[in-house]
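mind reviewing this stuff:

——
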Amino acid sequence: LFDHYLVDRKINAITEITPAVVDAFLASRPRSRPRSYNHLLSVVRRLFKWLVRQQRVAQTPVQSQARHATAGQMMFLFDRVQAQQLLKLAAELPDNNRARNRGRIYSLTFALMYGLGLRVGEVARLCRQDVDLERDLLVIRETKFLKSRLVPFGPKLGARLREYLQQQTESAGALAPTAPLFSFGPNPSQAIHPGTISQTFHVLWPRLGLKVPTGAMPPRVHCLRHSFAVGTLLRWYRSGINPQQRLWDLSTFMGHVHPASTAVYLTITAELLESANQRFN
């Protein structure tokens, strides 16, 4: 982003990058949340610290200060029973003139998000060739920050995927390797849109009768990914695994380059505190 900004302004030398240029770049990338703004500022600041160490510039032009971040609302976390209820409701969705197999598609997309911690865009972009039933894994291609990864799945999700593909083959023929895994038709080459998945989630969750805890935001589809992260941590605690030794595994699984990015998802719940306290004792 910074490089494109400099090219557009015809700034061709590092020495031309002044504090005013850096401030103008930051202002050109509006960030509503302090954390997002501070992250962008931090990336640019680290770049120039490196340039100073490499003696490419005498001093850093980054003089902007981080924004004060107030405590945000907690993410709503689905437990196993609530997630099962969501999948059941999704499976009961009827078809309409613009969408066929709505129940099967939405139930499986939510299951992949909750069971594997996938982003909604990652689920929507899956193609048939991304489902490896021989090795029981998904290939997530060029997702956020153009990273790709392999995501193994267990027997329950494997059975759901096999059943879905079998039903797809029986009703409309086998999918081509590059065909979207989830498509409503009549154009089978058009993948389901992430926004459509999100809208359907917002239609369904009020029907679950969930009680939103004080201080938590109403559920949104990204909560399923958060729920996966916290649920994994809780299972590790309860099975005697030291989470500190496994955070790199969780980060890799979720497509993060460092556990610090994963920590954003690890909302501290009463169950986590109880399990951590038992481990400490």
In short: The chain has a mean pLDDT of 87. Residues 34-53 form the longest helix (20 residues). The CA atoms of residues 83 and 119 lie 16 Å apart.
